[in-house]
Amino acid sequence: MQQVSTPDAPWYTQAFDRNWLKIYAHRDDESADREAEAVVGLLGLGVGDTILDVGCGAGRHARGFARRGLRVTGIDLSKDMIDEAREKSPFLPGKPNYMRWDARKMPFHNQFDAAVSMFTSIGYTGRASDDYEIFSGVRRGLKRGGYYLIDFLNEAHVRANLVPEDEKTIDTLRVTFKRHIAEHATGGPTVIKDIEAVDARSGRPEARFQERVRLYTLEDIDRLLGEAGLEPEGEPLGDVFGATFDESADRLVRIARRP
């Protein structure tokens, strides 16, 4: 089925569907399982601990946490993503609880030992106030002393390594990616990716949509966390496996704690 984004609707309410899963199929359970294991170690979690996966998508990391005996709640705004997560998780230990929910309006209070936002799941609206609401909701949902881990873009790496355009063949799709940074976007600098997929055999259009992510620096993230009542802890990391964070790091991984 063809998917074409609607100009007057926010991109994040349209992009995350079954075609998106095909295009990002390289983000698989195997890689997420390794990342989940690393996160469990970073946060000192054990069997029976509770974890909230904010922007859980199709549940890749949630399944990794569940396999390690954690009690998992995953939330995401996309119906297709939540449906996919439920379909792929029926027999896991503890069976993750998936909820279709807007992360800016989380209903949790003092429930979780930890929370995570994996694979760039903040910055979607371009408004720092919305991400503040997400962070505030996480703080409310955490138990005292609970940890929040954010896995986000490294702004300096994006600026230095942005590829303006490339094309890939993914299964039956030929996918074109076009990228640029809108320096003066409302709310702050925003990396924009336009994606178009056509059937590789017939040339028939299959999907066309845009992704937009606000570029935050480490200082921006720390400020927002602090304003939301979370205390950044330790040094930032370049990935969940403990890489050094510097301008060349692929990722920015930040851990904060609810006091």
CATH topology term of the largest domain: Rossmann fold
- The CATH class of the largest domain, by name, is Alpha Beta
Structural classification = alpha/beta
User: How far apart are the first and last residues' alpha carbons, in Å?
Assistant: 48 Å
* Helical content (DSSP H or I, runs of 4+): 25-40%
The major β-sheet equals: 7 strands, mixed
User: With helices defined by DSSP (H or I, 4 residues minimum), what is the helix count?
Assistant: 7
Tally of individual domains: 2
Write up this protein.
It contains seven helices and twelve strands. Mean pLDDT is about 95; it is low at about 1-5. The protein has about 260 residues and is of the alpha/beta class. The longest helix is centred in the N-terminal third of the chain and has 15 residues, at about 30-45. The protein has two domains: about 5-15 and about 155-215, N-terminal domain of TfIIb (Single Sheet); about 25-150 and about 215-255, Vaccinia Virus protein VP39 (Rossmann fold), CATH 3.40.50. Strand 9 (about 190-200) and strand 10 (about 205-215) form a beta hairpin. It is globular, with a radius of gyration of 18 Å. About 25% of the residues lie in helices and about 30% in strands. The strands form two sheets. A seven-stranded mixed beta sheet has the order 4-3-2-5-6-12-11, sandwiched between helices. The protein has a five-stranded mixed beta sheet with strand order 1-10-9-8-7.
